[in-house]
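This section describes the prediction task in plain terms. A model, or a person checking by hand, is given the sequence of a single protein chain and must write out its three-dimensional structure as a string of tokens. No templates, partner chains or ligands are provided. The sample shown here is typical of the held-out split.
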Amino acid sequence: MKDLCITLYKGFSAVSGETGLLPVMEDIRNGKYADIVHRITDFALRGMKKEAELLKKSLPYLSLTANYARRRLPHSIIRYNHAVTIDIDGLADDRIPDLRRRVESDPDVLACFLSPKQHGLKIFVFLRTAFACKLREVTFSAAEVSYDSLEKYHAQMYDAARRHIEQLTGVQVDTSGSDLSRGFFISSDPCAYLNRTLLEEIPDYPARILPADKPAGKSADTSRKSPRPAAGKPDVPPATVEPWEQMEYRKALSTTKRTDRFTEGNRDNFLYILGNRCYRKGISEASACTLILRDFGREDMDVLAPVRNAYTYISKTEAAQKVKEEKRPLINRVMEFLEQHYGIRRNVILDRLEFLPLGASGTSDTSGTSGSEACKGIYRPMRGKDYNSIFVDLQMSGIVCFQNFLKSVIDSDYAADFNPFLDYLARLPAWDGTDYIGALAATVRTDDQELWTEGFRRWLVGMVACALNEEDMNQLVLILYSEQGKGKSSWIRRLLPPQWKEYFYNGMIDPGNKDHAQLLSTRLIINMEEFEGVKPGELAELKRIITQENVTQRKVWDAQAFTFVRHASFIGSTNNRQCLQDIGGNRRFLPVTVKEVDYRTPVNHAGVYSQVLALLKEKYRYWFEGHEIELLNLHNELHRMKDPVEENLFVYFRKALPEDLCVKWMPAAAILSKIAVYGKVQVNRQAMQALVQSLEKYMFRSRTNAQGSTEYEVVDIQQADVEANFRK
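The expected answer:
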């Protein structure tokens, strides 16, 4: 059976042997190192990062992409395996199963397993796209491949594999592992995945890899141990160590001893890390060699080689990186910095930018925040101060740009669109068949429970439909009537899950106020708490708003007007039973008389909204139509405040019956004159309009006389009969 060679290391550099991908994956699946991995995970969960890192270094360190003869250095490379190593770190526990399914379903993924901390994925990729195949063919068609050519090839192949995995998973890859010599720690994962079919199909390329030239001044074999130089005569001239260098050296040594041990099998690694820290603190190489030789010099080992390697590698890497960074376009450097340090998104509902500071590992960093903003993973609105803070961070990182340049980058398509409604609903589980909406409706006891339950179900489904689809509108308004202190407003506020708390508005809407009009787009529920205070003119305007599809406005900072989609649904509460006023019909309102409200029982928001989604998928009709509207209008008559003209009409007149002999055909003005005299109603255009609407509503027969005026068939009730009716 075919296998790929893996290099084993003693520490991070010295080669200790070779093994294969098959036995390594078998060890990972069988839990050979499960005890250590479990302890690492436990340390990480308890926030003991240093202990976790120290214990992780006790695991075997391996490399698959490239194999080496003596050391993990360019001049020691012997083989390239074409399997690119990809790292995804900082994953939440609930995201890992879905990401694994996506990764393992891809035919170009060779292997995949959890990292030692169990919060990341290690992925080996052998791309077979047209680009990858062509790149391999061009690079390895020659008999020999230079190390420089191999590095360029690997950089292109890594970038292609990175983009492939990011597109597959939707998660950003950790690009710190893009180098050719990238290794990995062995782990423990009973579900580790290996694509044996792909392993068999990886071709063998006969091209020989030409190692890089050894660094000048190195011995023929630095892996061999050299005798300790005679006292006072090291292989570098003893340096005059400055006092400040000695002080910084002691700090570096103390820090290194806290994370590593100078023990058999780890000496080179210890000295390399110590040399690295000395370099970072500005200690000269000669001074570092003198001090390290003094403290760790031994006859049986070359203590200076790892130190020199650290200085050589780091200085060259930093210089090359600096030159490379300076050549890269400024916009690329700024965008890369933002990706590493901030999560930035555009809230399409509130039409605003939001950001989340990220820690070093790509997780949320809440240092410097307070209150609810200090909660992990909470995005905050981008304010002027936040732009300034990001600008300062850029300058401190050596990326020099103008502040307007930074704002232009952030306030562009760079910020990914975020819809809080879709985001929450997409994470809900499938509906399990339980009537969660009915259970929620049952927490409000009304005088007509069946009508209330059905109306609430339709209103809730319409609310979500209006939030998700531009073409859908929720034209039904629920109105809860009871005396004060029942808890109506408290119950209404709990209809939305905590994730949507910001999209709730409490108060009446003033259509003439531009900020209020904008609420139609930026809020999900508008609770009209004092609905009885609506004036007749305002009610007509409110009915117009309820049917409004969108809002066209020019915001203060915009040069032109834009159209914003309406997302809001309306609900209200009142202490006045007769809260409706329109004689022509109130089909858009559903008032209910509330007897008791239970606003303390927790709401199962996940169950309620998963049921709503299921109903929407089943094409549930959330609006009233036909005969249902007639029944709704009939119900609403109990909650309509009638105009004095309408009430007095039936005090002094009535509809004619077939057997009536004293029938009169009277114009509306004549009818109003009598009502005005006896009912003390003021005669004006508004009263005339109310009378005509009443006559039409109750279907009084009408005709047009010779003068073109409309007359109505009525029976004039005599004053004696009126008085008698009052006494009944």
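For orientation: The mean pLDDT is 85.
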